[in-house]
Amino acid sequence: MRAPLSTLPVELENVSVVAGRVTILDRISLVIAPGPPTVLIGPNGSGKTTLLRVAMGLTAPTDGRIAWAGNPASPPLRRAIVFQRPTMLRRSVAGNLRYALAHACVPRPQWPGRIAELLALVGLTGLEERPARKLSGGEQQRLALARALARDPELLLLDEPTASLDPAATKAIEDVIRAVAARGLKVVMATHDLGEARRLAGEIVLLHRGRVIETGSAEIFFAAPRTSEARRFIAGELLV
């Protein structure tokens, strides 16, 4: 069962995050609404990970306002995040999912069916009793996705989920993202791979030096970028 509360849209208004003398996010205004995947792109250090953490509620803005479905104090019941290097519990694959289901308050009698459903979704059926830390990097990332999906979120935030994976493992992750997006789950993903952004994005957000440089539909962004920074980034030039 889905939690009764909603988390979308996520509205950021003039959000800044400052650590010491370093401005990580600089007056960002952005609306994350239901729809196809939103992909965050930009050079390293542009603020992609911090923006995901703010959208999740893990990092509080230094200045500005954020609200989830109009609520500035929304509990994270309908959202989940997967980091670039997820930590595997010292348990089996199924044990990792049982832990996630327990924390999502899913009734215990539903666990076997949910575990089977989640493993089928991420392509790990048959590996229930495999120690999670013995999985390959790509398999661990898919298990991390299954754990996040165990809470039946409305918003899934992904921080470079295919970084350092080979093409086959990358395709497996992208297939999961397409499958959950087709079910109506809102995905917001950071990536450094423009090819991946072209394959998955419905909307693009280009970040540079903590600011939103350009945002819009992926089709328009790649066909007719409006800013010089976007044109240079698409062409493979360095943004410094």
Description:
The chain has 240 residues and is of the alpha/beta class. It has a domain at 20-89 and 153-234: Rossmann fold (3-Layer(aba) Sandwich), CATH 3.40.50. 34% of the residues lie in helices and 24% in strands. The chain contains eight helices and nine strands. It has helices at 48-56, 93-103, 111-122, 137-149, 167-182, 194-200, 218-223, 228-234; strands at residues 10-19, 22-32, 38-41, 63-68, 79-82, 155-159, 186-190, 203-208, 211-217. The strands form two sheets. A six-stranded mixed β-sheet has the order 5-6-7-3-8-9, with helices on both faces. It has a three-stranded antiparallel β-sheet with strand order 2-1-4, covered by helices on one side. α2 (93-103) runs parallel beside α4, α3 (111-122) crosses α4 and α4 (137-149) packs parallel to α5 (167-182). The longest helix has 16 residues, at 167-182.
